[in-house]
Queue: 4 jobs
Job 1
Amino acid sequence: MADSPAAFTDQDACVDAIIERVGKRIVIGLPLGLGKPIRLANALYRRACDDSSVELRILTALSLMAPVGKSSFEKRFLEPFTERLFGDIPELAYAADALSERLPDNVTVSEFFFRAGSALKNQSLQRHYICTNYTHAARDLLVQGVNVVAQMVAPGSEDATGCFSLSCNPDLSLDLMREMRSGGYDREAVAFVAETNRQLPYMGRDAEVKADEFDIVFDDPASDYPLFPVPEGPISPADHLIGFYASALLKDGGTLQVGIGSLGSALVYSAILRHRHNEEWQRLHRDLKVAELFPVTRDCGGTGPFELGLYGCSEMMIDGFVHLMNAGILKREVYDNADLQTLINAGLIGPELSIETLDVLRQYDLIESPLRARDVSWLQQYGILDPALVLRGGRLSLGEKALSPDLDDPDSREQLEAVALGGKLTGGVTLHGGFYLGPDKFYQQLRDLSPEERSRICMTSVNFINHLYDHPFGDQRLKAAQRCHSRFVNSTMMHTLSGAAVSDGFEDGRVLSGVGGQYNFVAMAHELPGARSILTLRSTRTSGGKAVSNIVFNYGHCTIPRQLRDVVVTEYGIADLRGQPDEAVYLALIRIADSRFQQGLLRKAQDSGKVARHFRLPEEWRQNTPEAVKKALKQAGHERFPAFPFGSSFTPEELTLGEALQALKTATATRRGKLVTLVRALGVRTDDPTLQPLLERMSLAHPSDLRERIDQRLLIYGLHQVKPSH
């Protein structure tokens, strides 16, 4: 580690410095998601393309790319949208070439997590994929011989001169810094490289590091670029019901981990509904007979507002956590001392302070009487004593006032309570996160946080968040004390009747995304007292124009083994699998499957001897239909469950067009559907003036050839499906 980093304003000069330091064999680790230093990464990749003697290996995860349309309709829809959202953000050159399989022979890209489905047909990315739990990713980067770590950072303000914030990605960087700065590494043979970007929110606490932790810094404010946004996806009626059921499993005063996507957003929305509009939430809870049909919600969940609040501990800080914070739900503060946290959990110490607070701390041997210097310092750290209080020569002083440190003396106690006690505990954290990613307005919300709000968020190492083992940022006892009543909520693609979950890939070996932290959170739920793992999934998906069940009898690949089965939620309810015998597990999952597939699943379960032959599906189980989902939400009031409850990056016209294109895609999923749709589309009128703005948006208002005339009619036909008045 140099006394101060070598600073450059030229990207190529940075690349020269990297090569001078580590040589031409470069194994570079780049952060997952947002924190990639795009300008530096592109310059380094460009150098490798121009100089075949440079051997470049890129180790990373979730390389973000703007969406690209495949069909004519998709291109017409996406190109203006993409230009609006991503036009000022430089493209990751290595990622674009990796996706199109144009990497030169001297460059290899290995990822441990793909954007879902992006690499299914890419043989190079599939071959070089590294399968690892998120908690082991830093270790596995070291196994691969990483010698350069590069990251986008936020430069410090006047209040933080000489510091950088790892901001969106302390998740692996903190651990890599610790390991690669240890005695086992030649410091001159590795390089930590920072690329500053003033668009990046400055997050403090663990994410704040000294600038001299880096060896090389690229700093060119003129070329700073906006952060890569992930637009909000629509929440379907099925998603909303999944989120609603999951919200009934949250316990007030508990802990929440949740992932990205519409199912996570649906849970956040229903949790806010439960808190702010509890009567309406309770009405749907009664209509769905949640407590009666799914008793796990009575044992492990709740139905009231979040009076005590929740604490968030999630590898990914999604924008939903800011919504929960603004709603007054994410407010339970945790502290970095296991003894103090244990007393808070037991209700022996509350947020409001009194002289009895000192008595409790003394009773449990956290402080002594008379107070010592270290006692005073420790009490000031948590706001229990006034920070201006000084212990000198066995006497306490606060300005002109002299006080006794003897807690057994009545006069001393009275004086301490009157002038020296703080008003409430300070220094607490309401959210620990490893990385963040979300819509553009989410980044702006982070930039706009007040210092007090920002101090309640601690971006930190993923190893602190994702498991319980001792770690430099917190020991096992501390984590267990903080994470009371944990609910680890993650989505999955498929679930087998035996209790295994399929989340990251297919039985033919192709990787859809990656394991990420899912396994660790599920395993942690079985280790922490009172914790539960909640896996959410839609009961069906559409394939080839037909509905297919996501609850299956068995499957040739799993992400979560059946011995870790716990709680599973679909739009049809909740399956509580923990500790249950196989027959009960099989039936609980059939209970929340789509009714079109229940009989087939039951038959296979009975043929395998897992369910008694005489069992018949109860009539109430056979009501699991998409129509029932829509009916339930209609009774609750459609306006309470909108597709975009937190806003959308799409314009109203684009939302309508998106629905129309989806309707067309569904209608043309089969050969017969294509033919029928085309015949019907050719008969539509093209002179409806109310459709002109939509046609203009798709550049189909004035078709110039036969193909465009057909596309125009197909689009109008699709719009008729979502705008029946036309």
Job 2
Amino acid sequence: MNNINEPISILKKYYGYDDFREGQESVINTILEGNDCLAIMPTGAGKSICYQIPALMFDGITIVISPLISLMQDQVKALKSAQIEACYINSYLTDLEIAKVFADVSAGKYKIMYVSPERLDNVKFWEYCRSLNISMVTVDEAHCLSQWGQDFRPSYLRISEFVKRLPKRPVVSGFTATATAAVKNDIIKRLELINPQITSTGYDRTNLYYRVEATTKKEKYIVDYILQHQNQAGIIYCATRKNVEKIYEALIKADINATMYHAGLSNSNRKKNQDDFIYDRKDIIVATNAFGMGIDKSNVRFVIHYNMPQSIENYYQEAGRAGRDGEEAECTLLFSSQDIVINKFLLENKDFSNVSHEDVELVKHNDSLRLKSMIEYCQTTSCLRDYILTYFGENKKGDCNKCGNCSREYKVADMKEQAKWVINCVAETKGSYGINVVIKTLRGARSSKLIDIGAVNYKSYGRLKDETEVNLRTLINQMICDGLLVQTDSKYSVLRMGNIDRLKQAEPYNVKQCKSVKKKAPSNNIKDKKDETLFELLRKLRLRLAKEEGMPPYIVFSDKTLVDMVNKCPKTIDEFLDVSGVGQAKAEKYGDEFIGAIVEYSRNSSKNMNLHENDC
């Protein structure tokens, strides 16, 4: 039997897992040896365990700097549910409540204290911390330190000064889900890490299925998708408040159990709507990107982006909120050329009030490069997973057979003549219009706009009327990638001539066109229909217990743990402890209820089977 002071024993006792995930044990050992570290681990990889276990083993307290109140509250609830004493200090607490937390920390009641980076502005907090035995300062969402990153927060820059002012330098650890090489180097520099161990477990979330759908009928797509995935938790991301409200109204009209979240709602409404989703009172939440950072809901089965995000980093983080429990989940991005216009407008009107004057141009340049990569992701016909991995500096692995592009069958067509007509049309527009006008002109559409601008009189008008809109869009996207055309970075993107020398050659101009979509086989870790019934029964039991305790259901047990219960059907506490995600505290607290439900279900199933056999 392992010593309870060993990391693996703590993992089993408090978290209910027999083995560490990739990278966790290495990070934990580095911290326990007193060394700084930076861990880059994808969402759902178990970053919090990497600093929580050392925090339990250190003599002093660990301060965790976390960007959002909702995140620290969820983390503390989860820790307390596992009988680990933790606390937080945020702006929701009164001075009296903060004083009580300070007193309890000084008395040694807590091992982990969560604070926001803004708390470091508080002189009283600095003075108080100087009297504590601080073993470690952990920085969550460490990419917020970097101006090369997508979520730069100036308040994070105070962390290194805070550490330097402490009487004794603690171990400093940083954690993030995403960091390009530039962001990684920036984090190390700004945190002033000393000879840190850098751990990167890779960006490949193998349980996620990525898909890009080029469509102008986004609202219908979303409604149809959700109706086919009923009783599953999902997030719909929109770029604007207006789109959030439009999609929310469409879902309510379709009698879908949904709520919404954006900065235009009152604080109380945002809090209520977020809680409705987290506590499983609502299946779907439609939101802007103001929602999600730090949301630890593990049973989100799908994330749909109504609009293209502004960067691969943003998309990877937002899509990554699906499948945190390791079960299969889908990430769908609905793309149209209008998304490019919206994002360019949003970037042009970005708030730079907290960015120094000399850094504004650098941030704008980085924003532009990230948006370009995001557009390429939406337009590529290659493996989507490979594109993400390559963007973050990992080697290509080839087709994954688990993304929308790899699930499509393509045919290669010589579209040299069609490409010539596209160039002819762009020349006739004198570079004044975007993709949609060019496609409608080539297909001979009858619209008032084409009549007004004189496009119906172009030589190219109607010349490609037999080509589908999808094929023409694919052709134009490839022509942009190959430099034959240029899509401007202006607020309203237009098409202009590029280097057309390639089309003057005798060789064909080959374009990959979607021939058909291979049916994606649904993954289901539940053995059969009977077991799905037991799974739903356990879900209802989990929901009831969560309501009684006023906590999110996933903190009681994740969906993955319920699936393991269904497959193992434990009948005793010892067997219950063998279920993945069941620790000692939760076995003592919930074991009798769940075992009782499983035994009762098995008994009734046996009776029904016997009755059926007698009837036969």
Job 3
Amino acid sequence: MQQNQSPAPVVNNKRDDDEIDLGRLFGLLIDHKWLIAVITLSFMVVGVVYAMLATPIYQADALLQVEKKSSGIPALGEMADMFATESEASTEIEIMKSRMVIGTVVDQLKLTNSVTPNYMPLIGEFLARRSEVRDQVVIESFNVPNSQLGQALTLEFDGTGFTLFDSEGEQALSGQIGTLAASGEWELHISDAVTENTSDFTLVKRTRLSAISDIQKLLSVAERGRQTGILTASIQHPNRDFSRNVLNAVAQEYMLQNIRRNAAEAENSLDFLQRQIPTIRDNLNAAEEKLNAYRLQSQSVDLTLETQGLLEQVVEIEKRINDLTLKEAEISRLYTREHPTYQALIEQKANLLADQKRLADQVQNLPETQQQVLRFARDVEVNQEIYLQLLNRVQELNVLKAGTVGNVRIVDTAETNPVPVAPKKALIVVLATMLGGITAVGLVFVKAAFNRGIERSEQLEDEGVTVYATIPKSDIQESMDARLMKRTKRKDSAQIDLLAKVDPTDLAIEALRGLRTSLHFAMLEARNNVIMISGPSPGVGKSFVTANLAAVLAQSGKRVLLIDGDIRRGYLHSILHTENNFGLADILASESKNDDSHVEYKSNIESGYVKNLDFISRGTSAPNPAELLMHPRMAQLMQDVQKDYDYVLIDTPPILAVTDAAIVGGYAGTSLLVARFGQTPSREIVHTIRRFAQNGVEIRGAILNGVERKASGYYGYGYNYQYGYTYKS
């Protein structure tokens, strides 16, 4: 087998260009505009469907007012202003959302029982919402074993009867609507049920704490404005009646607990005063008895004007001291002795005690009889004042307790907005459309980033590979290939027409005519007229280029022989409308020959489809194609056909798949590679050339096949086809 001289090394002149080409990115978007449009439209349709089928969420809201209040010590009288405080909105919000309030609502509305209708997937709930009757189950009582708490149970209705299944699907109990059904720890009493759209429901018995937690998550409370005392409460839920009823119950319970709290303050003060009244009354009686006894003993001693004045002053101070003592008892329950309010009361009491001591010194200067009468009269007056004051306070607290209204009022009761607050259909559609567009654009850019296929002949030239021709994509050929694939799948007679014969004016054929001219000059220095055409991988269009190039050469008046060198899977006989009865494999495997220096092949040549074009098919499939191609008969065949034809073209299988092309390349004077536009990476071509070089085969250049006009190439590089023709992208 003849071998070529050592091939020239591939020169890598690849340019290092890391700049972002905005023009090419814009061109990529134009190239894939239909893909982007389809993906965006698909996302938009999904958004519309979701917006239509999604469960609407309704919001109920209520308005409450929290008025400023004092510290809640009615018994302090005028001094109550000293202890006045304002109710912080944040405190009231936390109280409203507390377990104390929510827990009572859960108990009142029996929210530990959860019933959910089971509808057809996807559209069942959508259709049920448009029904005039809403499916619901009213439960009076429901108890389950502890192991079934929080588990999804199945409730099925059959007329007025029902059956309850546990979480394992086993029947737990059955009964009739309106009648209590019980079995062991199971107990269920359904007072009413509407099963217009479904007879299956999911029933869950939740723990009280979990029900409270769920309501706390649903309840939203905020102050409107700053320090306005106006609270806005809202609940969002798919069931508009549920949101309204729960929010009304929460607001009502919050107001009632506030009233109970204020009434409790009055009750505490009343209890304290009632405990003091008996003691003060006993003190008053004892003081009166002492005064009367001393008067009898002293035979009705009257007080002088000076002594009467001292008595009045002493009584007033004593009354004020006792009043402060009562207040100190109240304050001691609220503050420590170090609190400024407590310290102010102590200071005031100390001043009164100092005045009391001064008056006591004046009393010491009076006669003994006057002093005793003054003391007894003082005790009577002081205790009488205190006793009357306590009685008045008790009456005041009784009135206050009876008329307690609290400092919270419901301004607006809960009402549900008829328009759902979610989902926001327009926003969902817009966001879905935007997401679709972003996804489509991202997909295009990612695909472009991972697609290393050749899109410019300069990419090969940068790798040091000469490009002999760029063959535009042919729509006619593409349709014929599609028909061939369909026939092959149906196992029909698979034949397609030769493009050079069907449409000789096609731009792909025009490009092959340009290749014909280039080959004429390139082969002047070739050692023979055998041309091998191969490629790195399947699907690049080797057979298309080889068959149509052979036809173009034959149409120029040259005698051309086309050989299907792909003994494994060649299909050139389908393109040239011949039968694959006896071909190359049979010629090489045949042991009969006329003489030692000649291979009989002419009897196996097919001709007539294209004038001046003869064809040898691949022949019978052989288990050892590589060994057949290396047989001396192959070398002898090449020598014979070189003399009989102007051009001999051999189509070979891809070099990266099998080694057949490397063997055939040893017989060829000119070897060319076919690369597919947008599919074959430039590095794959370089690797292919090196693979051939390892086998002593020199690749003269490459043919870029299936070139498409793309905006990315146009905007990025100003690339266009010859003849000024605009090709379909």
Job 4
Amino acid sequence: MSARIDAAIASSAITALALSIAGCSGSASRSASTEASLTSVTASAQARHLHKLFPGLHVRYGGVPGLAKAAPPASAALPGANDLLATSTAVLAATDLGVFRSTDGGATWRPVLTGVEAWSLTAAASGGYAAIGNLPGKLNVGPAVLATSADGVHWRVRKITAPRSVIPLGGGYRFAMSGIGPHATAIAVSDTTWAFYSSPALRSTDGGLTWTRIGRTLPRGGFNGVTFTDGGRVAFVTAPGRGPSASQRCSGAVYRSTDAGAAWSLLPSSCEPYPLTALQFRNARQGLAAGGLGYKEGGGLVVESTSDGGRTWSTILRIKTGNPAGTPAPVGIVRLDMVSAQDGWAIAGGCDGGQNGPCAGSVLVTTDGGHRWQGTSQAANSLTGLGASGQVALAGDDPITTMASTTDGGRTWTRQAPPRWISTTAFAGTGSSQVWATNLGDFLSSDAGSTWASADQLSTGRYANESWLAGRPGRLLGYSQSMDVVTSADGGQTFTTSRVPDGNSSDSLLAAALGTSGRAIAVTGGGDDCLSSAQVRRTEQLKPGWKPSSGASTLYTSDDGGAHWDSAGTALPFGVQLVSDAAADGSLVAIFDACDNLEISTDGGSRWHEEAISKDVFCTVSVLAPPAARGELWLTCQTGQSGFWVLHSADGGATWTAFWLPASAAANGMTLYGPGPSQAINPIGAFATEPGGAVMPAGGSLWRTTNGGRSWRQSWPGI
């Protein structure tokens, strides 16, 4: 698998995927010369190239298929947000596309400021609203800008100047303003949802246009929370500092200024052993400060409160490492939004040591003033509560371009994203049954993708790390590298757990597949890297005592979708790598061996035929075994070129027809790769639905063929 993944990462398909998710078509222009050269060569030259890539296949060149593109449906949804701010009449969202406004609780949005990559929003202490961000730039981000508005609808944008810092002012900063006039004071501090590294705190006395570093009354770094109270005359920030005694150092503390940020003093009672990374005053007297440690630092959660305008603070919650019963995971809070004295919301997580953002964290909810917090299933890097009831909130997840809303205190969430911003993270299925994982959640179809039903139970709770396969209607198989698998015969309403036999305690589940009839396969073993004798000797010299994997792999079968497995298994004549791609339907089985060759069996795994494939090609496979037919196979293969191949066989792999999808296909949303769990490369290809038919996911759309791959038509199903 490693060689094929390296080839995939090197491919420009990854760039094409990012552009297609963002609704861009720039990949087509960048690869126009490549596409022209490929489509202008003769069929015989293309065929010669084809046989170099697939030397073991009896394959003919079928040309470039026709693509019937469909425009995505119109949508007033929002693809995530960097910051959210609830006003008395609407909700404002700072996004990479500008500032948006919603008057219906986040159901629909309209732009009120475009041409700016907005990061942070604030309500000025004396009235009005402001946002900071950047103009688009050729590399990374452009010049920093400040946008101000008296009503949240009409905005004025001006460039701002600031000293150089680790994080340029704009994206990656939180800020607060006393007002939006030319003499207003503003304070900006670095944001832990953007980057772990901290930049100096900055101050402006001309309405946010010119910024300077705050003087010696504050430490040089570690700032995260900032707010104004008392009409803008009093300001607070969080930062490390010295404790009540000269020998005691605070990892986190609250600093107070009574002259709009010119001079600061540490409030001794706020000293905490953990960093404080969020700060909010609900009114002039009542406020909360919160923080903790990230996963890499061992974890920790702390919340402290004040009821006298910030002069004194008391710790109301401190969780050290570990996860006591009834508490959320002890990770520092990076966002706070209390909507009443008792009810409020927070985000725990953000960027950890060494990471660059934006980094989403888990949404938490409290109903007792911050003494206890309950985790929810939603991740976000922006958050706002709507109303004092504590039941309604909006959460923005900019990294995966979604917005989510809850009306029941965080127990359930409804996610949204414009269709062109929906991304596919995984897709699987055979025949009419399909399972589709997207940034909006998981979905199941029993009619080859015409309609979809929500199936978020597949990736929540104890099944969160499973990879899911769909077989006949209602049949599901979930698996990981563990020998334990999860099965369902009723579409995920109920689950049972079974165990694939393993002959060795070090064995892993290398591959699995599920067919239309409920027949399933599992391949176990220690994994194999297809190393030559010379490679083994060289590695043994570099790593004394190292031993290569045995390469011994065993095939197990199940006739009831994985609920029960044969106990003996079949020893395979080839090794299989960890997390290899496989497909099975009836007695037709296909799998990639450790040397990346395609192995095909038409008798359920007793006898195998090897089809050699070049090391420079990465492929996925799907099979369908119709009655009274030799079986159909689909290969979707990526090379180092800016396009990919789709190969179809209607005779069990005896002969193949190959179609080339050039760079324009990627511009139309078609691509072989999607972002998988933990940013892994997830192969996505053509999945057999019927004789001559297949479906291929592409972002939030599906491409279908009914004529063996000669032409494809795009559709946008509702999910």
